[in-house]
């Protein structure tokens, strides 16, 4: 193990801005550093919320470029000079730059692609020449040259195998790492929101970016039905382009007074530990960070059985590639509903709010499942996959 720790690990990011992939790689970097590995973090634009979470001793390397493509010469120079044993990247841009830079630098660095999204869906959403054509065109031709793929879910593994024609034995499935102890510590803090710190009605919680992918209209319409039978409120923690539309929808549905958009929080865990139910109605995910964290915090969860992630967390003993299209599934660790299922989502939330026993049962099961995502356990899986044990 001592010899292995002499190896250098480079974790390549576009920025430290709020995003699931960035947060997970910061967690990984910290974990590797805690084990004594030498860790570099080349970053195209080293700005964003997660920079402050990088532990001392990790070498942040500012590539200092205005446009992503200009980072290639800097990465070539970095690779030639430092010769890291492993280079981990997590988005299409850093993936491409990693492979091109390694090829030109002619180093033995092992390139590892962390894959955290459903690329078949992502590519269908892209518009314009650069994202709509060029990125899919390039990635489908060069991704096969990565040494290792680490998918954060079985759904993502299946998807990238099909999209990029990658042999499945080249793909390892490792879930997102979560600092369980830190999340629970932060969860005890006050939220600064009167609905939770001085609760007088049940609160339904959503945490995440407010964008089309999250299908907030389904959740808002479901809340309207919940509110008819169970006096309650819904709180959205996060920012995004869809906020104004969702504010207008809340008005149209007549529920605006019991809907609040809190914005971004540095500590969403404090909201999770105090909410009565956590709900996500996404139409696709990689492996939902907020759903993982809600389970670590012990809040009962309701999630759509979307393309990847929720089923693996909530019903891991079932067929992970199956997708329900009707009804409610009371899973081992939470409740699954079909995508776009306003009626089913409403009924599942109402059941949890009105049945204290069921709510307490799923709260305990969430806590139990959350332990599976602890950073130490996940890091051991990375060590094995990267031959660093």
From TrEMBL:
Gene3D superfamilies referenced in this protein's UniProt entry, alphabetically = Glycogen Phosphorylase B
- Residues in Glycosyl transferase family domain copies: 196-362
Q: Name one Pfam family in it.
A: Glycos_transf_1
Q: Which domain of life is it from?
A: Bacteria
Q: Name one GO molecular function term.
A: glycosyltransferase activity
Domain named Glycosyltransferase subfamily 4-like N-terminal: residues: 19-177
Sorted alphabetically, which PANTHER family does this protein's record hold?
Answer: GLYCOSYLTRANSFERASE
Q: What is this protein called?
A: Glycosyl transferase family 1 domain-containing protein
Q: Which species is listed as the source?
A: Candidatus Campbellbacteria bacterium RIFOXYC2_FULL_35_25
